[in-house]
Amino acid sequence: MPTRRYLMCRPTHFAVTYRINPWMDPAAPYDTALAISQWTELKRVYEELGHQIEEIDPLPGLPDMVFAANGGTVIDGKALAVQFRDAERADEGPAYAEWFRGAGFAVTEAKAINEGEGDILLAGDYILAGTGFRTSHASHAEVQELFGRPVITLQLVDPRFYHLDTALAVLSHGRDERSREEPGVQSVGGPVNVAYLPEAFSPGSQAVLRQLFPDAVIATVADAEVLGLNAVSDGETVVLPVQAVALTAALQQAGYKTIGVDVSELRLAGGGPKCCTLELRS
Q: pTM of the full predicted structure?
């Protein structure tokens, strides 16, 4: 299995002090130390799987900066910077763009609102792009122009699943990095496949997903409600919230290894394993 390179941000300043999604309740208690402990365990799991972890320094006053997936989209050594919908997160965008530049990625500034891999997910040779709550439909054209890959627009309709990565997880990419570099090597992880919650999408988008991914793993509402679909897969092993019991069983039935992690404290802000994890693709 090829080693993945992930960018993460320690939740040093994690807090729930405002409400920009249905999960957040500023009146409810939160535990920053527990969030740090859960995040540290997630990072350890990735390292144990052999993946490379980069870290961006957390900035005070940005409690959601831990959700690195929203910091950009990085494909083929090119990074599309983000433009957040909500003022509370606006300063995260420049911080991530600066990190990308320092790491040697060519950075393109966003003209339209997009929230990174929260709504823009690479799936084999295609890019799945969510809209409806955060990322604007206009940004999908920017994504296609920059990365030169067909973009499939998916309409989200349930405010609980406000980002695409809360309603759909890419499980395998078919032809991966290794098979491209080594002709004749069989694709790791089989054909491109996903797991998703149909009810989170408009009828037209559900029809598109059925056509594209006839063998998709279908999640239950109960598992989506614990952000079970906010999962990270390397094509072989899926890291997902331990509370997503039925989805874990379905993934195992489909041939994937699974590792359950508890990031329930971060879920108080609407995030899970994928939200904490931005893949850096050279």
A: 0.93
